[in-house]
Amino acid sequence: MALSIDEPNPASENPRALAILAKTIYRELRQNGYAERDILAVASELLGMVATDLKEKRAH
Fold this sequence. Notes:
The protein is built from three helices and no strands. The chain is an all-alpha fold and 60 residues long. It has a domain at 35-60. It is flat.
């Protein structure tokens, strides 16, 4: 089950949770040989997915 952007979730209850998650993902990607440009591409893809979801929600 996916969480809605407006629903409370464990990360929203702990402000540091998202920073910790981001740092963990970054470290994992770097340790697995991904370059900065690759990580930026992943971040861009994630932002694009969120933007698409938000557009779809606004259209309904």
